[in-house]
Write a structure and sequence with these properties.
Helices cover about 45% and strands about 10% of the residues. It is elongated. It is α+β, with helices and mostly antiparallel strands.
Length: about 190
């Protein structure tokens, strides 16, 4: 396969930065692509500067790497997402490479409740699909889907266990202190 020339690398600076973040954190292409649920080949094209990640994929990568706001802004600018949407030029190759239509919604701080969960795990990461049954005739409706690395999933398990133990043992009903033996004789 021919090496792409520099004119093909439209997002070279972005790709270099993404690869640098991944290698500094000593993560493989498989680990990162699994954590953000994209194909390894897609991440490789991004790191080579041949493909620009969609806004939501770039946000997932930013969150996965846990970078500072300044670094995140730099990635955003390198991807060309710092311009208002009306000024952006749509790249037809980007549209051809995207296999799914993704919808971005405004961030909503409400708590979403779930009564079912499907968990899938592989060497690349863990995906939790939260569902709400509510007697839906078509079956349970998805509420949220969260992907993470295996290491992060282990941390989440520990944090949840600690939270449940605190709730069970520290926030239980308060009992009155035992009556003092001397005061009860009076």
């Amino acid at each position: 396969m021919d090496e792409p020339n520099s004119s093909d690398k439209k997002y070279g600076a972005l790709g270099t930065e993404l690869k640098s973040l991944r290698t500094r954190q000593k993560k493989s292409v498989a680990e990162v692509s699994g954590a953000v649920e994209i194909e390894e080949a897609s991440l490789e094209r991004m790191e080579a500067g041949l493909e620009r990640p969609s806004e939501d994929i770039l946000m997932l990568l930013i969150n996965h790497f846990g970078i500072t706001e300044r670094e995140a802004l730099q990635l955003w600018e390198l991807a060309g997402y710092d311009q208002p949407q009306t000024e952006r030029q749509i790249n037809l190759q980007d549209l051809k490479n995207n296999k799914q239509l993704l919808m971005l919604l405004a961030v909503d701080a409400r708590t979403l409740y779930s009564d079912m969960i499907e968990v899938t795990a592989s060497q690349n990461g863990v995906v939790m699909n939260f569902l709400q049954a509510n007697g839906q005739p078509a079956g349970p409706a998805p509420v949220a889907k969260i992907g993470m690395s295996v290491e992060q999933a282990k941390t989440v398990m520990k944090v949840m266990e600690q939270a449940l133990l605190r709730m069970q043992y520290l926030n239980g009903p308060k009992a009155l202190p035992e009556p003092d033996q001397e005061n009860s004789a009076n």
